[in-house]
Design goal:
The chain is an alpha/beta fold. It contains ten helices and ten strands. α6 (178-195) links the parallel β7 and β8. Keywords: ATP-binding, Nucleotide-binding, Transport.
Length: 277
């Protein structure tokens, strides 16, 4: 078994067009068991395209994606191989990722069965609801009976019930109210660590990333411009784009800087600065 649950190297994702649109331009990233790695950047920077390539929803035009040392095949109409159900994803909008025609408990049971197929210890959907802070009796509820935040916790419970080796969380807290964002992010980090899994946490919220991620990769225009230990990157950012992102993060007392949209000249300058390893 590989020392990394995720080993993505030089991943390129292109979309049809004339010329083709490059969504991800040669991104490399690794996640070890028990580690949370953040991928941050503005909307449109390519974060979600990379996440979808990692789990096999998008095809990588170039490069490689290995999960526990095995290539990740693109998802098709057939059910994914049992060993690859160790990759689970939490999407940004739980209203589209949960099936409105199935009860909450039945959907979490899908994760339980995936874990059982890989020889994991048996569990019950109600246990996972309790672990994400919801009433275990809600196994009989329908998704429409839940708030947005409650739906997202159900989606997290379903993913974790599969006892993943790798959890890919694509903007999992952006649809939540501000009062619950940090608590849900910490909950995900703690449960993933408890399972001995790794997590790729994708977000534009650097304040949350600072609290939960061991390492951070900063993405802009499809490429990673800078990466490193989260505390060190926060203390001494080297790339001008990273410095601009951090300058827009509000202070804890609410009296932070007012985010200012970058100018066209600044964006052009960022594109010419070499990435920082």
């Amino acid at each position: 078994m590989s020392e990394f649950v995720l080993d993505a190297r030089d991943v390129v994702v292109r979309y049809p067009g004339s010329p083709p649109v490059v969504g991800v331009d040669g991104v490399s990233l690794r996640v070890a068991p028990g580690e949370t790695v953040a991928l941050v950047g503005e909307s449109g920077s390519g974060k979600s395209s990379f996440a979808r390539a990692v789990v096999g929803i998008e095809r990588a035009a170039e490069g490689s994606v290995l999960f526990d040392g095995r290539p990740v095949a693109r998802l098709g109409l057939r059910r994914r191989a049992p060993q690859l159900t160790g990759i689970q994803m939490v999407f940004q909008d739980p209203s589209t990722s949960l099936n409105p025609r199935r009860r909450v408990g039945d959907q979490i049971a899908d994760g339980v069965r995936a874990a059982a197929a890989r020889g994991a210890q048996a569990s019950r959907p109600a246990e996972w609801l309790e672990r994400v802070g919801l009433d275990p009796a809600w196994v009989s509820r329908w998704p429409h009976q839940l708030s947005g935040g409650q739906k997202q916790r159900v989606a997290i419970a379903r993913a974790l019930a599969a006892r993943p080796r790798l959890l890919v969380a694509d903007e999992p807290i952006s649809a939540l109210d501000a009062s619950t964002q940090s608590s849900v992010a910490r909950l995900m980090r703690d449960l993933v660590a408890e399972l001995g899994a790794g997590m790729l946490f994708i977000s534009h919220d650097l304040a949350v990333v600072r609290r939960i991620a061991h390492r951070t990769h900063v993405m802009y225009a499809g490429a990673v411009l800078e990466h490193g230990d989260t505390a060190e990157l926060w203390r001494a950012p080297r790339h001008p784009y990273t410095r601009a992102l951090l300058a827009a993060v509000p202070e804890p007392d609410g009296a932070g800087r007012i985010p200012v949209a970058p100018t066209a000249d600044e964006r052009a300058a960022w594109a010419t600065v070499p990435p920082i390893a």
